[in-house]
Protein backbone atom coordinates (compact mmCIF):
# COMPACT_ATOMS: atom_id res chain seq x y z
CA UNK A 1 0.00 0.00 0.00
CA UNK A 2 1.25 3.47 -0.94
CA UNK A 3 0.30 6.40 1.32
CA UNK A 4 -0.16 9.90 -0.09
CA UNK A 5 -0.58 12.86 2.27
CA UNK A 6 -2.42 15.80 0.70
CA UNK A 7 -2.89 19.39 1.80
CA UNK A 8 -5.95 21.62 2.00
CA UNK A 9 -8.32 20.78 -0.88
CA UNK A 10 -10.96 23.40 0.02
CA UNK A 11 -13.37 22.27 -2.65
CA UNK A 12 -10.82 22.44 -5.48
CA UNK A 13 -12.09 19.18 -6.90
CA UNK A 14 -10.72 19.53 -10.44
CA UNK A 15 -7.20 20.04 -9.15
CA UNK A 16 -7.64 17.25 -6.64
CA UNK A 17 -8.63 14.74 -9.31
CA UNK A 18 -5.82 15.94 -11.58
CA UNK A 19 -3.35 15.45 -8.73
CA UNK A 20 -4.65 11.93 -8.08
CA UNK A 21 -4.15 11.13 -11.75
CA UNK A 22 -0.62 12.51 -11.59
CA UNK A 23 0.30 10.30 -8.62
CA UNK A 24 -1.47 7.31 -10.22
CA UNK A 25 -3.69 6.87 -7.21
CA UNK A 26 -5.63 3.60 -7.02
CA UNK A 27 -8.53 3.42 -4.58
CA UNK A 28 -8.07 -0.29 -4.12
CA UNK A 29 -4.32 -0.16 -3.42
CA UNK A 30 -3.40 3.24 -2.02
CA UNK A 31 -4.25 5.29 1.07
CA UNK A 32 -5.03 9.00 1.20
CA UNK A 33 -4.31 11.12 4.26
CA UNK A 34 -5.90 14.58 4.08
CA UNK A 35 -4.79 17.37 6.41
CA UNK A 36 -8.17 19.04 6.86
CA UNK A 37 -10.00 21.93 5.19
CA UNK A 38 -11.55 19.58 2.69
CA UNK A 39 -14.12 22.20 1.73
CA UNK A 40 -14.96 25.91 1.52
CA UNK A 41 -13.62 28.82 -0.55
CA UNK A 42 -13.39 26.55 -3.61
CA UNK A 43 -16.15 25.80 -6.14
CA UNK A 44 -16.83 22.06 -5.86
CA UNK A 45 -17.45 21.06 -2.27
CA UNK A 46 -20.11 18.44 -2.99
CA UNK A 47 -17.97 16.52 -5.47
CA UNK A 48 -15.01 16.67 -3.10
CA UNK A 49 -16.88 15.17 -0.15
CA UNK A 50 -18.68 12.58 -2.25
CA UNK A 51 -15.38 11.35 -3.65
CA UNK A 52 -13.63 11.23 -0.28
CA UNK A 53 -16.52 9.43 1.40
CA UNK A 54 -16.39 6.76 -1.30
CA UNK A 55 -12.73 5.83 -0.87
CA UNK A 56 -11.60 2.49 0.56
CA UNK A 57 -8.66 3.68 2.67
CA UNK A 58 -8.68 7.28 3.75
CA UNK A 59 -7.53 9.14 6.87
CA UNK A 60 -9.05 12.57 7.48
CA UNK A 61 -8.51 15.20 10.15
CA UNK A 62 -10.80 18.19 10.48
CA UNK A 63 -9.76 21.74 9.75
CA UNK A 64 -11.35 25.00 10.83
CA UNK A 65 -13.37 25.27 7.59
CA UNK A 66 -14.78 21.78 8.08
CA UNK A 67 -15.86 22.57 11.63
CA UNK A 68 -17.35 25.87 10.47
CA UNK A 69 -19.43 24.02 7.89
CA UNK A 70 -20.77 21.59 10.51
CA UNK A 71 -21.85 24.51 12.70
CA UNK A 72 -23.60 26.25 9.79
CA UNK A 73 -25.33 23.05 8.70
CA UNK A 74 -26.73 22.60 12.22
CA UNK A 75 -28.07 26.17 12.25
CA UNK A 76 -25.54 27.45 14.77
CA UNK A 77 -23.56 29.89 12.60
CA UNK A 78 -23.85 31.84 9.36
CA UNK A 79 -21.66 31.79 6.29
CA UNK A 80 -18.86 34.36 6.38
CA UNK A 81 -17.80 36.60 3.53
CA UNK A 82 -15.92 34.41 1.05
CA UNK A 83 -17.55 31.14 2.14
CA UNK A 84 -18.76 28.92 -0.72
CA UNK A 85 -20.74 26.32 1.16
CA UNK A 86 -24.15 26.78 -0.45
CA UNK A 87 -23.74 23.76 -2.73
CA UNK A 88 -23.43 21.55 0.35
CA UNK A 89 -26.10 23.28 2.40
CA UNK A 90 -28.67 22.95 -0.39
CA UNK A 91 -27.80 19.34 -1.27
CA UNK A 92 -30.02 16.32 -0.58
CA UNK A 93 -27.08 14.55 1.09
CA UNK A 94 -26.42 17.34 3.60
CA UNK A 95 -27.10 15.15 6.63
CA UNK A 96 -24.74 12.45 5.35
CA UNK A 97 -21.97 14.99 4.79
CA UNK A 98 -22.34 16.34 8.32
CA UNK A 99 -22.53 12.89 9.90
CA UNK A 100 -19.38 11.75 8.11
CA UNK A 101 -17.40 14.85 9.03
CA UNK A 102 -18.45 14.62 12.68
CA UNK A 103 -16.80 11.20 12.87
CA UNK A 104 -13.37 12.56 11.93
CA UNK A 105 -10.82 13.51 14.64
CA UNK A 106 -8.59 16.57 14.93
CA UNK A 107 -5.37 14.51 15.16
CA UNK A 108 -4.37 11.07 13.92
CA UNK A 109 -1.29 9.06 14.83
CA UNK A 110 0.05 6.32 12.56
CA UNK A 111 2.50 4.01 14.29
CA UNK A 112 3.72 2.34 11.07
CA UNK A 113 5.12 5.64 9.80
CA UNK A 114 5.35 7.32 13.24
CA UNK A 115 3.42 10.33 11.96
CA UNK A 116 0.95 12.78 13.42
CA UNK A 117 -1.58 14.25 10.99
CA UNK A 118 -3.14 17.55 12.09
CA UNK A 119 -4.64 20.53 10.33
CA UNK A 120 -2.78 23.46 11.92
CA UNK A 121 -0.16 22.27 14.40
CA UNK A 122 0.90 20.74 17.69
CA UNK A 123 1.82 23.07 20.59
CA UNK A 124 5.12 22.30 22.24
CA UNK A 125 3.83 21.92 25.80
CA UNK A 126 1.95 18.71 24.97
CA UNK A 127 3.59 15.33 24.50
CA UNK A 128 2.15 12.81 22.08
CA UNK A 129 0.02 11.07 24.72
CA UNK A 130 -1.52 14.41 25.73
CA UNK A 131 -2.09 15.41 22.10
CA UNK A 132 -4.10 12.29 21.35
CA UNK A 133 -6.02 12.47 24.61
CA UNK A 134 -6.97 16.12 24.05
CA UNK A 135 -7.95 15.45 20.46
CA UNK A 136 -10.25 12.74 21.80
CA UNK A 137 -11.85 15.19 24.22
CA UNK A 138 -12.99 17.33 21.30
CA UNK A 139 -13.91 14.31 19.19
CA UNK A 140 -16.12 12.98 21.99
CA UNK A 141 -17.96 16.30 22.10
CA UNK A 142 -18.33 16.48 18.33
CA UNK A 143 -19.81 12.99 18.08
CA UNK A 144 -22.16 13.42 21.03
CA UNK A 145 -25.86 14.12 20.63
CA UNK A 146 -25.26 17.31 22.62
CA UNK A 147 -22.60 18.62 20.22
CA UNK A 148 -24.45 21.89 19.54
CA UNK A 149 -23.18 23.53 22.72
CA UNK A 150 -19.59 22.84 21.66
CA UNK A 151 -20.14 24.00 18.07
CA UNK A 152 -21.69 27.27 19.24
CA UNK A 153 -18.86 27.90 21.70
CA UNK A 154 -15.90 26.96 19.50
CA UNK A 155 -15.68 30.41 17.88
CA UNK A 156 -13.35 32.99 19.41
CA UNK A 157 -9.72 33.67 20.31
CA UNK A 158 -9.89 33.34 24.08
CA UNK A 159 -8.63 31.85 26.23
CA UNK A 160 -5.23 32.07 24.57
CA UNK A 161 -3.05 30.48 27.29
CA UNK A 162 -3.25 26.79 28.14
CA UNK A 163 -3.74 25.60 31.68
CA UNK A 164 -4.55 22.10 32.83
CA UNK A 165 -7.07 23.77 35.13
CA UNK A 166 -9.18 24.95 32.18
CA UNK A 167 -12.54 23.22 32.06
CA UNK A 168 -15.70 23.10 30.01
CA UNK A 169 -16.22 24.97 26.78
CA UNK A 170 -13.23 27.37 27.14
CA UNK A 171 -10.94 24.33 27.42
CA UNK A 172 -12.47 22.72 24.33
CA UNK A 173 -12.26 25.99 22.36
CA UNK A 174 -8.56 26.40 23.09
CA UNK A 175 -7.75 22.77 22.25
CA UNK A 176 -9.62 23.18 18.96
CA UNK A 177 -7.81 26.43 18.17
CA UNK A 178 -4.42 24.83 18.75
CA UNK A 179 -5.15 21.94 16.41
CA UNK A 180 -7.11 23.78 13.69
CA UNK A 181 -6.09 27.47 13.68
CA UNK A 182 -2.61 27.85 15.21
CA UNK A 183 0.29 29.40 13.34
CA UNK A 184 2.24 31.31 16.00
CA UNK A 185 2.98 30.17 19.53
CA UNK A 186 4.84 31.35 22.63
CA UNK A 187 6.16 28.63 24.89
CA UNK A 188 4.83 27.35 27.18
CA UNK A 189 1.24 27.36 26.04
CA UNK A 190 0.18 30.66 24.45
CA UNK A 191 -1.44 30.89 21.00
CA UNK A 192 -1.64 33.96 18.74
CA UNK A 193 -4.45 33.97 16.18
CA UNK A 194 -4.46 37.35 14.45
CA UNK A 195 -1.38 36.98 12.22
CA UNK A 196 -1.69 34.78 9.13
CA UNK A 197 1.43 35.35 7.10
CA UNK A 198 4.96 34.06 7.73
CA UNK A 199 6.32 36.94 9.87
CA UNK A 200 5.85 36.22 13.56
CA UNK A 201 4.42 38.87 15.90
CA UNK A 202 6.67 40.07 18.71
CA UNK A 203 7.36 37.39 21.30
CA UNK A 204 6.00 34.54 19.20
CA UNK A 205 7.49 32.02 16.81
CA UNK A 206 6.07 29.50 14.35
CA UNK A 207 4.62 26.67 16.41
CA UNK A 208 7.06 24.12 14.96
CA UNK A 209 10.01 25.95 16.50
CA UNK A 210 8.86 24.49 19.83
CA UNK A 211 8.42 20.77 19.28
CA UNK A 212 7.90 18.67 22.37
CA UNK A 213 10.84 16.31 23.09
CA UNK A 214 8.48 13.36 22.61
CA UNK A 215 8.07 14.43 18.95
CA UNK A 216 11.74 14.31 17.96
CA UNK A 217 11.36 11.13 15.94
CA UNK A 218 7.75 11.71 14.87
CA UNK A 219 6.94 13.33 11.53
CA UNK A 220 4.21 15.94 11.79
CA UNK A 221 2.08 16.43 8.67
CA UNK A 222 0.03 19.64 8.65
CA UNK A 223 -1.86 22.05 6.42
CA UNK A 224 -3.54 25.41 7.13
CA UNK A 225 -0.56 27.73 6.52
CA UNK A 226 -0.53 28.50 2.79
CA UNK A 227 1.95 31.37 3.18
CA UNK A 228 4.70 28.86 3.99
CA UNK A 229 4.21 27.26 0.56
CA UNK A 230 4.91 23.71 1.68
CA UNK A 231 7.70 23.89 4.24
CA UNK A 232 9.90 20.79 4.59
CA UNK A 233 12.11 20.20 7.62
CA UNK A 234 13.33 17.03 9.32
CA UNK A 235 10.21 15.34 10.70
CA UNK A 236 7.96 18.18 9.50
CA UNK A 237 5.96 18.48 6.28
CA UNK A 238 3.69 21.43 5.51
CA UNK A 239 1.13 20.39 2.92
CA UNK A 240 -0.89 23.56 2.26
CA UNK A 241 0.39 25.30 -0.86
CA UNK A 242 -2.60 27.55 -1.53
CA UNK A 243 -4.48 25.84 -4.35
CA UNK A 244 -7.64 27.79 -3.53
CA UNK A 245 -5.59 31.00 -3.90
CA UNK A 246 -4.41 30.11 -7.40
CA UNK A 247 -1.22 28.29 -6.46
CA UNK A 248 -0.82 24.51 -6.06
CA UNK A 249 -2.34 21.42 -4.49
CA UNK A 250 0.36 19.23 -2.99
CA UNK A 251 0.78 15.53 -2.23
CA UNK A 252 3.71 13.80 -0.53
CA UNK A 253 4.36 10.07 -0.92
CA UNK A 254 5.29 8.92 2.56
CA UNK A 255 7.45 5.96 1.59
CA UNK A 256 10.14 8.06 -0.10
CA UNK A 257 9.07 11.66 0.56
CA UNK A 258 8.53 12.45 -3.11
CA UNK A 259 6.57 15.64 -3.74
CA UNK A 260 3.80 15.98 -6.34
CA UNK A 261 2.00 19.21 -7.21
CA UNK A 262 -0.94 20.29 -9.34
CA UNK A 263 -1.26 23.87 -10.51
CA UNK A 264 -4.57 25.58 -9.75
CA UNK A 265 -6.88 25.63 -12.75
CA UNK A 266 -9.01 28.54 -13.85
Give a quick set of tags describing it.
single chain; 266 residues; alpha/beta; Purple Acid Phosphatase, chain A, domain 2; five-stranded mixed sheet; 29% helix; 18% strand
Outline the structure in words.
The structure is a single chain. With 266 residues, this protein is an alpha/beta fold. The protein has a single domain, classed as Purple Acid Phosphatase, chain A, domain 2, CATH 3.60.21. Helix content is 29%, strand content 18%. The protein is built from eight helices and 13 strands. The strands form three sheets. The protein has a five-stranded mixed beta sheet, with helices on one face. Strand 6 (184-186) and strand 7 form a beta hairpin. Helix 3 (64-73) crosses helix 5 and helix 6 packs across helix 8 (168-180). The longest helix is centred in the middle third of the chain and has 16 residues, at 128-143. 41% of the residues are buried.
What's the CATH architecture name?
Answer: 4-Layer Sandwich
User: How is the main sheet built?
Assistant: 5 strands, mixed
Stretches where pLDDT is under 50 for at least 5 consecutive residues are none
Strand order of the largest sheet: 3-2-1-12-13
Averaging pLDDT over every residue, what do you get?
97
- Give the terminus-to-terminus CA distance: 33 Å
* Percent of residues in beta strands: 15-25%
Which structural class should the secondary elements be placed in? alpha/beta
Total domain modules: 1
The tally of helices reads: 8
Supply the CATH superfamily name: Metallo-dependent phosphatases
Spell out the helices and strands N to C.
EHEHEHHHEEHHHEEEEEEEE
Number of strands: 13
